[in-house]
Design goal:
Blueprint (H helix, E strand, L loop, with lengths): L12 H13 L2 H13 L6 E5 L5 H9 L5 E6 L2 H11 L4 E5 L5 H4 L4 E6 L8 H11 E12 L18 H13 L15 H10 L3 E13 H8 L13 H14 L5 E12 L1
Helix pairs in contact: 1-4, 2-3, 6-8, 7-10
Length: about 270
């Protein structure tokens, strides 16, 4: 089984609206996008692809780093995400293509200067995606993406040091005690993209790996609460309705230590075609 938010659920209007609102009110996706953009070396690049672009957060930040006549092609498999992005960004320098990352070379015939992919690559079939990216990227062009630590087998720094329960600990406890939720053993979460696996796949796809860095990002409990309000990310998965999940989140937030700051590890990869 792929992770809960692999593909199913993204093509949903409400989820897309709430995701987009989150990206405007909280810095998570802008921060991670800025990191990728700074590594993609875009100052003299004219045409790039934002892969699994969602509502275009990374594209908008990339355009700030590109020359005035720079253009971005946003590719995403969820039309609902693109509809929201097209409306809220309303930028003629962005083209929107609804397609799977794995098929990007069937939809883009031009050679592009760089490809960035924020917070999504693990949702794709990476060997197929890497091969497709290689076909559209000019020789020497950069392919920059990140992987949430949990999907790369990297643990978060404060997992063991925390002395009070996290928001997600409390969500699970309340769901079990007050809503009869029965935690299920996680089924096979799919391939883990360790740094070694990613490197092997990139090299097999014809890339040179320039960097694989581990970075840490901190977030407030308020940001976590807002993120967990996006239907696709709401916990716990399965069994309960979204309304129940929101009641549980509300209760958990009222009990959590709101000064808590949580750190998340990301693997950031820079490859060259
Ligand atoms: C967490 S969002 C990230 C969106 C955007 N990159 C950002 O930084 O805000 C994940 C996105 O990946 C897209 N996605 C998932 N699997 C995909 C695939 N195989 N091909 C293209 N897009 C995909 C989803 O539709 C969703 O818009």
């Amino acid at each position: 089984m792929r992770p809960q938010d692999a593909i199913v659920g993204w093509d949903d209007e409400l989820n897309a609206e709430l995701y987009d609102r989150f990206t405007r009110q909280h810095p998570l996706y802008a921060d991670t996008s800025r990191d990728l953009v700074s590594r993609a070396d875009l100052t003299d690049k004219r045409l790039i692809v934002d892969l699994c672009a969602g509502t275009g957060v990374t594209a908008a930040i990339a355009l700030e780093a590109m020359p005035i006549d720079g253009r971005v092609i946003c590719v995403d498999s969820a039309k609902a995400m693109q509809t929201v992005g097209r409306r809220t960004l309303n930028d003629p320098r962005i083209t929107w293509i609804t397609a799977r990352a794995e098929d990007v070379s069937d939809h883009i015939t031009a050679t592009v200067d760089a490809v960035v992919c924020n917070s999504a690559i693990w949702k794709t079939n990476t060997p197929a995606t890497f091969a497709a990216v290689k076909r559209i990227l000019r020789p020497g062009g950069r392919f920059v993406f990140n992987i949430g630590g949990g999907f790369a087998d990297l643990s978060d720094p404060d997992d063991r040091a925390r002395t009070t329960p996290s928001l997600t600990d409390l969500i699970t406890a309340i769901a079990v005690l007050d809503y009869g939720y029965v935690p299920r053993r996680r089924e096979d979460p799919g391939p883990v993209l360790t740094p070694a696996t990613v490197k092997t796949q990139l090299v097999a796809g014809g890339f040179t790996v320039l960097a694989q860095d581990t970075v840490t990002r901190t977030s407030t409990v308020e940001e976590k609460r807002a993120w967990l309000s996006i239907p696709l990310f709401a916990r716990p998965s399965g069994q309960l309705t979204h309304a129940q999940r929101m009641e549980i989140l509300h209760e958990a937030f009222s009990r959590v230590d709101q000064t808590q700051v949580s750190a998340t590890t990301w693997l950031v990869v820079v490859a060259q075609a």
